[in-house]
């Protein structure tokens, strides 16, 4: 709650403030909730009518300037779309180029269906191929820098090249920042922190990818019961993620584990209200317990029709399309 | 005092409108604001109406909105070809941050090509006749001028949304100046986006009788701003989407597509096993009773409501969605599919 006078607008003279207060408008919230037409009609009869009118106009334009502006359709259509490749041909083809910048992509799957592997591969690929910084928010302690190094090796192709490009590899690894977060409050604080830094533009940040593995493990503990606070926290996380994606053009990759649903069919731990948060929802499953082939299918996607799927393999050096074998040199 | 009242009476007695202008105004208002494309084709929507499209996430709500936008921003005719648009500006409040510009551009392309397709068929050539006759540049220009009529604003909380609504009037005036016609379409996607956030505010106590952005006060303010807007712009049609929160959460997952092969097969059985199409349609509805969660102020503001469901596996390649009018109530259920080129009514047996 912010008091209107704290906005320090020049048109809010004591007389004007007194008039606002008499009508019950003291805070900014009061102001946006109030019927301003009625308010101005009342003001017509007062001696400070002109000043009040000016104050309303000034306050509105002040509040509007804090926000995103209206955007024309033509400008938006020329903005273009950028994708961050995942370094695996079959997955990139399914997603028409990888994870899209400015959107939230969610991986849903039971444990050991390759969620974290895809996250680490995305981090490695973005840091090396796209030369951008990556933030990896680790809520279950599953991040392994060694594994990411292996994946970077896989991207390079062979051991020989790895030796040549050791410095580049190190700098790519340095671009990946891992943050351990274990509860929803810490997550919210951290995300707000990133947003504020990016918004301030203090550093010419090259952050393009934000990964949260997994978002469900910090949110599901606060859900349940008859209280709506848990849902409010969950949607707050969703809102700040959407804000980061939309305003800072970040690609955001999050994971969501599954729980047993009806008839032992797995369902996403965060379902219902959370479903409106990600733009793309990808389901991962293990083809069969014996094979090393995994399946990825599109559950929800805003820009194309759904129900497409693909398969991939998780090898020593990262993700591979299921129809290719790993190079002998890597083994 | 007496003089003013006499003046007032005289003013009141004065002719305010001739029958001709009144008829023109009423008829204008009665014309459907946007081309009645499925699934909105059963009810004619005019200015001043408020349509709520309600359905679970992923049931094609946003797609219906995109289609409405295209109908609004496309011109009526272009170089002698009917495009069926209204050539009016449209404003879009993106509360969900799910708006996909590329999808809109793609659909716009498809729609224009579809409308011009008649020529192509007549000439019977592999190369579209219109592209030869008019050139790609003029087509690009058509798309660009249409897209200019579309305006988007993202809001991240109820406060943003209220400020945006309060400052909408001068913006609409600018649009009117620029395009020579008043905006015809206002879309809110989706109206319940801040439900949980606003609900939590209510439980946080507000001291000293100050107003807070609670669910009820926000929706009352939103409805008030919108109704005042409709007074100024009587031809404005308001469309809103609302994500349904299912009463029965276990049902929800089985509606999702492609989750696993077993899941899909099972649904195929229930789909194909049932008898007539009507009984099938009913079996989908079971357990999907939606719970109204928007406050009374919003519910009272809505004049039309369309319920959409889906996607359902049809056993074929395309997924089926269903649409049913809830307000005005109707028993008829339309089925449609969403392909890359947009919404089509599903025909034939499924």
Automatic annotation (TrEMBL), chain A:
Protein species of origin: Riccia fluitans
Record-given protein name: RecA family profile 1 domain-containing protein
GO molecular function: ATP binding; DNA binding
Gene3D superfamilies assigned: P-loop containing nucleotide triphosphate hydrolases
Biological process annotations from GO: DNA recombination; DNA repair
Lineage: Eukaryota, Viridiplantae, Streptophyta, Embryophyta, Marchantiophyta
Pfam families membership: Rad51
InterPro entries (alphabetical): HRR_RAD51_Paralog, P-loop_NTPase, Rad51_C, Rad51D_C, RecA_ATP-bd
Subcellular location: Nucleus
Membership in a protein family: Belongs to the RecA family. RAD51 subfamily.
From TrEMBL, chain B:
Signal peptide: none
Ranges of residues in domain RecA family profile: 26-244
Domain of life: Eukaryota
Cited PANTHER family: DNA REPAIR PROTEIN XRCC2
Stated name of the protein: RecA family profile 1 domain-containing protein
High-level lineage: Eukaryota, Viridiplantae, Streptophyta, Embryophyta, Marchantiophyta
């Amino acid at each position: 709650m912010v008091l209107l006078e704290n906005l320090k607008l020049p048109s809010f003279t004591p007389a004007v403030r007194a008039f606002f207060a008499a009508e019950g408008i003291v805070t900014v919230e009061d102001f946006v909730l109030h019927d301003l037409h009625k308010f101005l009609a009342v003001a017509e009869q007062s001696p400070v009518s002109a000043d009040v009118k000016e104050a309303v106009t000034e306050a509105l334009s002040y509040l509007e300037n804090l926000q995103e502006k209206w955007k024309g359709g033509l400008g938006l259509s020329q903005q273009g779309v950028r994708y961050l490749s995942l370094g695996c041909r079959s997955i990139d083809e399914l997603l028409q180029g990888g994870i899209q910048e400015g959107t939230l992509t969610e991986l849903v799957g039971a444990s050991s269906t390759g969620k974290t592997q895809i996250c680490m591969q995305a981090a490695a690929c973005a840091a090396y191929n796209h030369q951008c910084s990556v933030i990896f928010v680790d809520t279950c302690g599953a991040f392994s820098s060694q594994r990411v190094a292996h994946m970077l090796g896989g991207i390079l192709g062979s051991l020989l090249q790895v030796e040549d490009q050791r410095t580049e590899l190190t700098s790519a690894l340095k671009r990946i920042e891992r943050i351990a977060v274990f509860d929803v409050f810490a997550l919210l604080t951290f995300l707000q922190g990133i947003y504020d830094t990016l918004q301030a533009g203090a550093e010419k940040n090259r952050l393009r990818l934000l990964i949260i593995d997994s978002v469900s493990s910090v949110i599901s503990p606060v859900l349940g019961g008859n209280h709506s606070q848990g849902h409010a926290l969950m949607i707050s996380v969703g809102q700040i993620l959407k804000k980061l994606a939309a305003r800072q053009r970040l690609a955001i990759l999050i994971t969501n584990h599954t729980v047993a649903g009806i008839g032992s069919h797995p369902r996403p731990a965060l379902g219902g209200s959370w479903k409106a948060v990600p733009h793309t929802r990808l389901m991962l499953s293990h083809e069969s317990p014996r094979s090393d082939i995994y399946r990825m299918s599109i559950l929800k996607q805003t820009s194309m029709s759904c129900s497409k799927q693909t398969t991939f393999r998780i090898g020593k050096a990262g993700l591979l399309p299921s129809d290719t074998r790993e190079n002998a040199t890597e083994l | 005092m007496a003089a003013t009242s006499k003046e007032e009476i005289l003013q009141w007695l004065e002719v305010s409108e001739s029958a001709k202008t009144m008829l023109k105004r009423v008829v204008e208002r009665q014309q459907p604001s946007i081309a009645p494309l499925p699934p909105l084709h059963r009810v004619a929507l005019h200015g001043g109406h408020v349509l709520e499209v309600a359905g679970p996430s992923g049931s094609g709500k946003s797609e219906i909105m995109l289609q409405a936008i295209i109908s609004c921003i496309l011109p009526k005719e272009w170089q002698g070809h009917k495009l069926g648009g209204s050539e009016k500006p449209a404003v879009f409040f993106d509360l969900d941050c799910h708006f996909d510009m590329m999808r809109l551009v793609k659909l716009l392309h498809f729609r224009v090509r579809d409308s011009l397709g008649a020529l192509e068929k007549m000439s019977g050539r592999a190369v579209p006749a219109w592209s030869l006759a008019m050139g790609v540049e003029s087509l690009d220009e058509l798309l660009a001028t249409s897209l200019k009529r579309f305006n988007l604003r993202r809001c991240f909380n109820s406060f943003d949304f209220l400020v945006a609504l309060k400052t909408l009037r001068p913006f609409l005036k600018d649009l009117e100046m620029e395009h020579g016609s008043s905006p015809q379409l206002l879309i809110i996607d989706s109206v319940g986006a801040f439900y949980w956030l606003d609900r939590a505010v209510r439980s946080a106590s507000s001291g000293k009788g100050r107003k807070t952005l609670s669910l009820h006060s926000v929706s009352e303010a939103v409805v008030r701003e919108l109704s005042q807007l409709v007074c100024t712009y009587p031809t404005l049609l308001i469309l809103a989407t609302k994500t349904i929160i299912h009463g029965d959460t276990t049902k929800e997952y089985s509606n999702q597509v492609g989750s696993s092969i077993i899941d899909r097969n099972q649904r195929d059985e229930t789909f194909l096993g049932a008898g007539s199409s009507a009984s099938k349609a009913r079996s989908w509805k079971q357990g999907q009773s939606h719970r109204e969660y928007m406050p009374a102020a919003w519910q009272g503001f809505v004049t039309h409501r369309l319920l959409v469901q889906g996607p359902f596996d049809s056993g074929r390649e395309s997924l089926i969605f269903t649409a049913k009018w809830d307000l005005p109530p109707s028993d008829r259920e339309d089925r449609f599919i969403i392909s890359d080129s947009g919404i089509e009514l599903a025909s034939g047996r499924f």
